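Aim 2 progress update. The chain analyzed this quarter is reproduced below.
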Amino acid sequence: MDKPRQCIFLVLLLPVLLSACGSGASSSADSAASITAGSTTAFTPSSSPTLSPTPQDSPTLFLTNTPSPSATRPAIGPISLCDDSIYLSDVTVPDGTVMEPGEEFTKTWRIKNTGKCDWTTSYALAFVSGNAMEGTTAPVPESVGAGDAVDISVEMAAPETAGTYTGYWRLKNADGAFFGQLVYVQIVVKGAATATTPTPSPLNTPTPTPEFTSTATPETPVPQPG
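Predicted structure tokens:
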């Protein structure tokens, strides 16, 4: 091929080559862009990671027993009742006194008022249980202030049957309510004396043997033949 034809051929071929080079560069650029876009999509995290807080030890509470100021309380003593009493002594008829059947006697107790209220003559000593021994309610003989003592007596009679007898008594106020300690009377009734006359035992004396005396029978004469 001569030189003029080669030049013409090159001139005609140059646009084709330039077009091919442009399309290849565009394709390379597109490929690079797609790779870049794909890589960006692939590595983009779907959601932000949640960071959990680092656990920390909660502070330990130390409780201190701090005494709180307490009010001063008065000491609790025995409760004093309006009506109350205690037994002091037996003035008459000590426990276990021996008596005859049916014997009459007067029983007297010494009792102290340990309540806050005074006793009036509307107060009385009344039978509660056991054996009354014919005793009846006995009124307090006089007014008795708190802290004072009084002797109260009841007329009684011993039972007719031998044995040991006990009767319990107690104070009651004007409203009939019992209060205070029980008091009691105790006697012994002796049995009736029985006179026993000893029976003498027979002596071992020999019984005398009776003596027999023979009496001679007179002979009857026999008649002689004559």
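The mean pLDDT is 73. Strands lie at 85-90, 97-99, 104-113, 124-130, 138-139, 149-157, 163-172, 178-189. These observations will guide the mutagenesis experiments scheduled for the next reporting period.
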